[in-house]
Amino acid sequence: MLFNHKIYEFEIDGRKCSFETGKLALKSESAIIARMGDTVVEVNVNTSPAKQEGDYFPMSVEYIERFYASGKINGSRFVKIERFPSDDAILKARMIDRALRSRFPSDYRDELSLIVTVMSYDEENDPVLLAINAASVALLNSRAPFDGPVSGVRMTMDKGEIKATYKSMEDVTSENVLNYVLGGDGNLFTMVDAACFEIPEEQVLKAMEMSLEEMKKWNAAQNEFVKLLEKKDKNYKSYALDEDMLTGMQKFLGERVIENLLKADKSVHESTKEEVYKEFEGKYTKLQMSEGYEKLLKKAMRKHVVEQKKRADGRGFDEIREMDAEIDLLPRVHGSGLFTRGVTQVLSIATLGTLEDAKMVDDMLGEKEKRYMHYYNDLPFAYGDVDRVRLSPSRRAIGHGMLAEKALIPVIPTVDEFPYTILVMSEVQGENGSSSMASACGSTLALMAAGVPIKKMVGGIACGLVTEENGAFHILTDMQGVEDFYGDMDFKITGTKDGVTAVQMDNKIAGLSMEIVRETFEKSKVARLEVLKVMEKAIAQPKGELSKFAPKVARASIPVEKIGELIGPGGKNIRELTERTGAQISVEENGSVNIYSMDQSSIDAALSYVKKLGLVPVVGEIYDGKVATIMEYGAFVDIAPGISGLVHVSEIAEGFVKDVRKYLNEGDEVKVKLLSKERDGKLKLSIKQVDAPKPKEEIAE
Fold this sequence. Notes:
The protein has 701 residues and is α+β, with helices and mostly antiparallel strands. It folds into five domains: 6-227, GHMP Kinase, N-terminal domain (Ribosomal Protein S5, domain 2, 2-Layer Sandwich); 243-308; 323-535, 2-Layer Sandwich (Ribosomal Protein S5, domain 2); 552-613, Ribosomal Protein S8, Chain: A, domain 1 (2-Layer Sandwich), CATH 3.30.1370; 622-700, CATH 2.40.50.140. The strands form six sheets. An eight-stranded antiparallel beta sheet has the order 8-7-9-10-21-20-18-19, sandwiched between helices. The chain has a six-stranded mixed beta sheet with strand order 1-2-3-4-6-5. A five-stranded mixed beta sheet has the order 11-12-13-17-16. The mean pLDDT is 93. The chain contains 16 helices and 29 strands. The N and C termini lie far apart (109 Å).
């Protein structure tokens, strides 16, 4: 038989779903097709023995979005095939990775490739949620020793009611206030990636608790499907460190392990490793000894926390490192803010541009514009490293940038309130844990310094975790680097004083219980309020005016039917207006017109013209006009684009006017009063009732 096709069909939330295998990718170790509605993803998992000695688990996760999935063609004129993953695809791959990675044995080192391909997208059922569940099934069906199942779900809030949803969601808004994606096994959480529109902690916790029951539905479906499949050999070569080596290294180093940990000096660690290499040369490889040294440091750190009730830098569990906030460090930028916590330090720079500067995003749903962006840059010097500069951001940098971006979306002013494109660049000056949270704080400072009227200040804090074998645990507020490396979780929460705006969590154990999660939120809120107090000392309110180096803006509105008249054939009119006034002009579909320039007079000139497009003439009002045509019986005067009226010869000047040209010429600028509007729309104007002109000969004399 050519195909060994297996399929399991089920329903989740009233949606028809299925897992199947045996029809596509026949050479793949584990190929799963998952469906939810008309959304279809293919997940392929392949493993191979480690090709070289390594001290980490080399799992790669790729999330590939094909435009054909939604019947679209790439919008680029020159490239019609998807060449590189979008930032959004990278973020989704990281989400899947974080949901699954902690469920592998710590001594597993085989190479593992997990590739998700979105094959069909119905614009209703979210492919990334389907992908997390399908990836879990694919791993269960592979030779990898995966401790599953793990499920992915999303919680949202509809009219105050918290519930699960499988619809695609992007940024949160005042209407869609909760986009909470979670991974877990129904009892423990393995991943959180969430955006919240200032949601109180108690509601976030309620959503997380409810998600556990939703996960169990997917777990049951995964288990039922796996029962249909042949079991595969999951034995693997263990790369666990030799206990005799660890014992010998501990004996050789003695108290130096804890001393080195507390010194936190990279050069001391390196010199100690060199001594270890020399002492045990020929018995073990350098990589094994290096990993062994790191394991001794990990044990020492955890023992210090449990027994001494202190952290490596001497802080208490709830103590935040010394903080500082400052604005206006850079003179010519539109806004800058520096946030420092310990040696973790981020300088954020805000730049304002026109709406034409908005980023165009082209994905499976089509094109859309993005007017608020945040990017995170971490160069080697931030770690004290000697390394080459990467010209493209790492996946970690993309993830950190998006986390800080999500953190501030709820407080960014609307386009009507602030018609600018906003870009914040966070330049990491020092990294020792929680730089993504420092980026959120730095972004807030930079935006307020730039005069962006954000609704509230946003701060963030990351918490670490040390667990004990007896189930006890210790939350470490304001996690630093060593606690990230040797601890059990990295739990980041941002928010205002009134609620949560973003959450991201990954862990190194099987998962986090609700008890751990609840305490983490409690401690994070207390810490966040302390962070906000420090930030408020630097700047309590957004500046009342923009930098003199930022473009000024004026906003007007014209009737929708006048848009074509403003733009002109092929953009002719708007180009001429830009050239004449020096202002940059953008028009929205609803008739809103934004005018930008560094020079106020340029804005005024363009604004005057644009306002005339929306002019509705009122009888008795006086208007600035330009003489368009001279006739024997008077002159036609334009008072706005497309609006003109007749100044009869009797309304030009006091007394008898024999020759109109003695008083007026084409191009003359005059003030006119609207006398009447006829039924056919014709306007009757008067010059003499405003300011009667004299004959040009008298003016010359």
